[in-house]
Specification:
386 residues, nicotinate phosphoribosyltransferase, 37% helix, 7-stranded antiparallel sheet, alpha/beta, 6-stranded parallel sheet, TIM Barrel, 22% strand, 2 domains
Length: 386
């Protein structure tokens, strides 16, 4: 695995950047100063916005290097073909960091955007992220943080209080019930052993029909039962909405209507969640967020310094000139070149974070970023599930 030291030193990069840096040094072009811009490409199908994420790690990567960094705040809703960051300094000092920088921002933004879409579609339902088992464990903290700041209500990693100050969420695995050989005994043991801060959510589809198992869970735990979880494999699922309605009717007959929460997990996608959101109270989502549609980003030279003046300069197909972003409201922006004034919008959100490698403003907490995202989601237009 790549160590933090390897990443910060620029070792984890594409070979052509190492060769480029060698050529620049050999030809004594180290002092060429540029402005490089990171911007989105086309967003995935049915995406009308994305959540810009990964800034904190990106700044950690560039901190201490002789660079100025301007960026949108982490958690900002962005559009396609949209500038998110400008890096100013000698290209020689930036060169090998393009690979890890784009990797951080693209992956983070893709995960956070997918999480935000689920939260937008879920309305007032609770969504928990259960996707760590689908990825390399080295990036588990990143995945949980990205999903959380994207707006989800809980994340499952046991380490999250240490990394993002969030108490981890989870229920019980089928393995616990299989070890006991009896689901009632497993539920009771769960209730007896764990402290009262852990919600009693019984997994009800290990051995028997979900409706009958729901009845047994109520009888076993009584008023201590917070909810029941359905994680039925796709091959045995049938009509999940009909199953839940059957359970809800039975709970109503028992006087437990809406007193026992319905949690659905196991291959939940956007369309499935929309279909079930009027009968379920919470969802556990994993793979759909762990492997999201990729939000494309590019990093390009857009200005070069000549005789103390910044000159618009880029390859074909790219708009030259470093760009400032001003905001009028959620998803309502005005983009102008550095040094120019906007006509409509007044809130400058392409703000300076690093001055010659030194952090010049306080980073927001994950909770603050999440609240920022949720506020924008309330104001963003409705989306179509994909």
């Amino acid at each position: 695995m790549a160590s933090e030291e390897d990443i910060l030193s620029g070792k984890i990069t594409d070979i052509y950047f190492i060769r480029t840096k060698k050529i620049i040094a050999a030809k004594r072009l180290e002092d060429v100063r540029v402005r490089m811009e990171i911007h989105t490409g086309s967003l995935p199908e049915k995406y009308s916005w994305a959540v810009y994420a990964g800034l904190e790690e990106a700044l950690k990567l560039l901190e201490g290097k002789p660079l100025n960094v301007y960026s949108l705040p982490e958690g900002t809703l962005i559009k396609d073909n949209f500038p998110v960051m400008v890096i100013e300094g000698r290209y020689y000092d930036i060169c090998e960091y393009e690979t890890p920088l784009l990797g951080i921002l693209r992956h983070y933004t893709s995960v956070a955007s997918r999480a935000a879409r689920f939260k937008k579609l879920a309305m007032d339902k609770v969504i928990l992220y259960f996707g760590l088992r689908g990825a390399h464990p080295a990036i588990a903290p990143m995945l949980d943080r990205a999903a959380y700041i994207g707006g989800l209500d809980g994340v499952s990693g046991a380490f999250n209080e240490e990394t993002i100050g969030v108490k981890p969420s989870g229920t019980m695995p089928h393995a616990l019930i299989l070890v006991f050989g009896d689901e009632v005994e497993a539920w009771k043991a769960y209730d007896e052993v764990l402290d009262g801060s852990v919600p009693r959510i019984a997994l009800i589809d290990t051995f028997n029909d979900e409706r009958f198992a729901a009845v047994k869970a109520v009888e076993a735990l009584g008023d201590r039962l917070y909810g029941i979880r359905l994680d039925t494999p796709r091959s045995r699922r049938g009509n999940m909405k009909a199953i839940i309605k059957e359970i809800l009717w039975t709970l109503k007959l028992m006087g437990k209507e809406r007193k026992v929460k319905i949690v659905v997990s196991g291959g939940v996608g956007e369309k499935a969640m929309v279909e079930l959101r009027d009968v379920a109270d919470a969802f556990g989502v994993g793979t759909a967020i762990t492997y999201p549609p990729s939000v494309d980003m590019s990093m390009d030279i857009v200005e070069i310094e000549r005789n103390g003046e910044w000159i618009p300069y880029s390859k074909r197909g790219k708009d030259p000139g470093a760009k400032k972003v001003f905001r009028c409201g959620t998803l309502d922006y005005e983009i102008v070149r550095f040094g120019m004034q906007p006509e409509r919008c007044r809130e400058d959100i392409m703000i300076k974070w690093l001055d010659n490698g030194r952090l010049v403003r306080e980073l927001p907490s994950p909770q603050e970023i999440r609240n920022y995202v949720l506020k924008q989601l309330q104001e963003a237009p409705d989306i179509e599930p994909r």
